[in-house]
Amino acid sequence: MNGSPNSGSGCNFAPWSDPKEKPLIRFDAVTKKFGDFVAIDNLNLKIYEREFFALLGPSGCGKTTLMRMLAGFEQPTMGSIMMRQQHLTDIPPHRRPVNMMFQSYALFPHMSVEQNIAFGLKQEKRPKAEIKDRVEEMIALVQLQAFAKRKPHQLSGGQRQRVALARSLAKKPKLLLLDEPLGALDRKLREQTQFELMTIQEKLGTTFVIVTHDQEEAMTVASRIALMDQGKLVQVSTPREIYETPNSRYVADFLGDVNIIGGHILGPDDKEDDIVQLAWHEDYAPLRIRLPQPVSFPEKGTERWVAVRPEKVRITKEYPTDTHNILKGKVLDIAYTGNISTYHVETEDGQIIKSQEANLEHLHRRAITWDDEVYVHWRAGGCVLLER
Amino acid sequence: MRRFSFFNASALTLGFAFLYLPIVLLIIFSFNESRLVTVWGGFSTKWYSAVFANKGFMDAAWVTVRVGLVSATLATILGTMAALVLVRAGRFPGKTLFSGMVYAPLVMPEVITGLSLLLLFVSLDFDRGFWTVILAHVTFSMCYSAVVISSRLVTFDMSLEEAAMDLGASRMATFFQITVPIILPSIVSAWLLSFTLSLDDLVIASFTSGPGATTLPMKIYSQVRLGVTPEINALSTILVVLVSTGVIAASLLTKRREVQRRREERAAVAGG
Amino acid sequence: MSELSNITEGAGLMTNGQPDSPKTQRRMSLPKNWGRCLLILVPYIWLLVLFLVPFIIVVKISLSDTAIAMPPYVPTFAWSEGWTGFWNMISGWDLENFTWLMEDDLYWKSYLSSLEIAVVSSLLALLIGYPIAYSMARAPSEWRPTLLMLIILPFWTSFLIRVYAWIGILKKEGLLNMALMHLGIIDDPLTILNTDIAVYIGIVYSYLPFMVLPLYSSLEKMDDSLLEAATDLGCSPFKAFWLITVPLSMPGILAGCFLVFIPAVGEFVIPDLLGGSNTLMIGKTLWVEFFSNRDWPVASAVAVILLILLVVPIVLFQRQQEKQQEKGA
């Protein structure tokens, strides 16, 4: 599930769960206002070294502002941003050990690839030989040896993206900010580049903070994802946690597709004591949700929601056995997207439940079609209970 | 591919004939042997020799070129600053007045600009001459420069400057290493515009100039009032040809670069 | 890089406790503001001294009286007299010059005829410029840059020379009369030079690029499919032109008319070289008042009133431009 090179490769990279670990970057009660508009609202956040940290959210949620504060282009209205022991807010952008890869790439149009990459090193007045070596190293890293003398307009989109990456890494920043780095690339190239980014990040050990509105991209590359909305962090977790155990309807809905049904807590299940029952309709049996072990049971009668991902909802014509939640309905619509089909099933009380099935056989042999009477069902462990 | 319709072709032909015929006739008659400007008396280049032999013309031309070079350079520097103030300096007390003062000279009748500057120089007891013309020309040309450069600055991609600062360049270094090279074409056109404005100006120079600083337009004007002469035709032809060649060459160069650039972009996308 | 290593080395010293209380961080870098002040002040002061102050002097002198002296007006202000001198100067001011302008119908007529000439020439320029701009916008796209340059090119060549070129054409024994007589259209030469007609021709000719450029830019932006939609919905091409093209090019029409009208009102060179002795235009009147009559106060008063006349169209023009920009943004 988790594609991050750090947490997925078995070396158990999780500094955020280690209380002894010191964060590289720490936001303390940071607020940023533009006039009356609150872009960042009293935000606290820790980012650890070697992390690939993704800021995810809809446009206008404040993720870009957060990144621009790290780069130094915006100053927080209140609160402080620390890098280790130093107030970052005291340092102007050109003195920060932070580099940024811009969404537009911002390649200097009057300079060649080499000159672009050398620009930051030249500002530090490094010796010529050292600059030359470093530039060559960076060009090799992004595999642009054949293009070193070219100007930005002589490069394709993917090549420009690599130059921008090489340029921002040339100074060995402590922290690299990537603002929608792959937004301008087409889908195929984007997927390929995601893996390249991860390889480079793992190789260099630099802390990456990426801003993106593409949830798949965030899931693929990040060690942790911070989902933002209206200037606040909604949830900060690993890709797996944020997808499997979202903390709110907003998070569940933002990441991927989800069915949400509201109801009231009825009490524990009589057979299995880690399953809670949720009354959602007076004429139907309560829904049953398995809770993660260390969670205390919510009080009877409190309002809760159940979220279940369409790929965890099965659809059959026969009444199923050996499952927890079964709803009867009629197929309203089928969305065929090649690899999978999504069935929109209207239950007897008018609720629409989406169910996804992999298309294992050719389409003409599909067993279920429009207006069929079907059962949709999912296991108690396949859904989550949400507080808000 | 679209083609010219009959109406479009004739409108353009008539329109450009109206615009260019007077100049073409002037050029043709500058090669007229006869002193009678409207009667063709055979081909001759004698009026050109007469122009170059005319010390009054040559002196005035030299004054004009010097005024033009100095005032265009100063106007471009001040115009760049004014453009930066307009586009980048944000709010400051008196900004409205400032932008008013930048845009007003563009629509101000020349007679008023000339008169007001003259009255200033008189009340300050300045000796009118070479430098007062330069001051006057800088003042109105800088406003044109400011407009040209600010329209480029408005579309400037700010992330380029941010990228430079992010990579460790100070504000100054960013300005001179990134901003100036990128907006250079607009600075060059501002300079060229200022230079031609200075070269062409009659009214303001007439007000602000003094003895010993007669510019070429002033000289031409005083001759023209006496009637059409072949020398003036020849002189005008020289000026028109010089300026047109410059403008056409510059625009062809820009166009060729653009074409080259587009070809390279296409190649890059195809190859990448 | 030293900064970076400081930060990383310092990390071990940090305790895991609560950070410093959140405090407002405001960085004020001195050099930046100092540079900004300089950047603002230099062009600001230049324009104040060489644009605004001269203007105030014009207003001041328009309130003074004519004198045979140098400078030819009283009262003047002597720095040595200090405040008393200043008060003496102010008390010497009056509106006599303006009363004079009201009473002498030469000035009234100059103003009115300037406005009339400017309005008529703007309309003529529109009539001539619209077909040109329209045809340019509909020309094959590879032709457009060339056509555009051909429109701009005259703007770079000397105004004076372009006006001068018409003298040889329009005068009694000039090229136009010769051609017309040769073709047998007329028997006697027409008197065109030194009449208002010559002034109209001169203004339209000189300012035509100012009309064509904004028209072209608004026509060029227009989406062809709008006309196709109109004809598809039953408009004849001519009607579609009136109902679609003309209204959509209105910003260009307005901008073009202002751009011709405003400079034409204060024009001096054209009426002086092409107009006759009875062509009254305010720019020429001001020039004569100043250089021939050496009446500086009256010339200043003429300038003040000319400016007041121009304020309305200039403000209207600015408004229209701003509205366009807002729409574009």
Automatic annotation (TrEMBL), chain A:
Residues 25-255 form the ABC transporter domain. GO terms for molecular function: ABC-type polyamine transporter activity; ATP binding; ATP hydrolysis activity. GO terms for cellular component: ATP-binding cassette (ABC) transporter complex. The keyword NAD does not apply. One of its GO terms (biological process) is putrescine transport. Its EC number is 7.6.2.11. The complex is composed of two ATP-binding proteins (PotA), two transmembrane proteins (PotB and PotC) and a solute-binding protein (PotD). This is Spermidine/putrescine import ATP-binding protein PotA. It comes from Cohaesibacter marisflavi.
From TrEMBL, chain B:
It is a multi-pass membrane protein. Pfam families: BPD_transp_1. Keywords: Cell membrane, Membrane, Transmembrane, Transmembrane helix, Transport. The keyword Transport applies. It comes from the Bacteria. The chain crosses the membrane at residues 12-31, 67-89, 101-124, 130-154, 175-193, 232-253. One of its GO terms (cellular component) is plasma membrane. One of its GO terms (biological process) is transmembrane transport. Coiled coil: none annotated. It is found in: Cell membrane. Residues 61-253 form the ABC transmembrane type-1 domain. Its main location: membrane. SUPFAM superfamilies: MetI-like. Belongs to the binding-protein-dependent transport system permease family. CysTW subfamily. This is Putrescine transport system permease protein. It comes from Cohaesibacter marisflavi.
TrEMBL record, chain C:
Residues 1-27 are annotated as: Disordered. GO terms for biological process: transmembrane transport. It is found in: Cell membrane. InterPro entries: MetI-like, MetI-like_sf. It is a multi-pass membrane protein. CDD domains: TM_PBP2. Keywords: Cell membrane, Membrane, Transmembrane, Transmembrane helix, Transport. Pfam families: BPD_transp_1. Residues 111-317 form the ABC transmembrane type-1 domain. Its main location: membrane. The chain crosses the membrane at residues 37-63, 111-134, 146-167, 197-219, 240-265, 296-317. The keyword Cell membrane applies. One of its GO terms (cellular component) is plasma membrane. Belongs to the binding-protein-dependent transport system permease family. CysTW subfamily. PANTHER family: INNER MEMBRANE ABC TRANSPORTER PERMEASE PROTEIN YDCU-RELATED-RELATED, PUTRESCINE TRANSPORT SYSTEM PERMEASE PROTEIN POTH. This is Putrescine transport system permease protein.
